[in-house]
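User: Hey, quick favor. My workstation is busy. Could you predict this chain's structure for me?
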Amino acid sequence: MVAAVQADADDEVASWIAAGKAPICFGFGSIPVASPADMIAMIAAACAQLGERALVCAAATDFSNVPHFDHVKVVGTMNYATVFPACRAIVHHGGAGTTAAGLRAGVPALILWMADVQVVWGAAVKRLKVGTSRRFSSATEKSLVADLRIILAPDYLARARETAARMTKSTESVVTAADRVEDFARLRRAG
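Assistant: No problem, here it is.
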């Protein structure tokens, strides 16, 4: 039943994306946002200034009592591997899995990090020049607009696509990691 519900949600998201300009995807993973209404208002205002649509993945945050905007769609969950490539950019918390999914999708990223470990991924997207980052708590409508202008520049998209072409597919990564763990275990037994 969970797979059927997820497939329905993914179909709904795909339909919404197809009905207009490719959106900017926002998601903050398992870290709940303190004020969902303020966050949606900031996202809506920033995207309106830039003439963009926003797709917000609620995940761990309850966005049920937030204002509605025609250019903003809020969903509970979605398949990042399917949705990210259909977006213009991704704004997220900087989790390792989300960062990898974004890099594989070939779209620029803005990492609004919340935990110290996420700073590493923000620095990585900056170093690769496929995105930028800042502390989530310092984000404002003005900084969000400025950061989105940076990552929506054509050179960021070009570098993001180049990076995606060099990324290992997720299925290959899992196999390679398992092989390395097994090799390590064999070496320890032999030594």
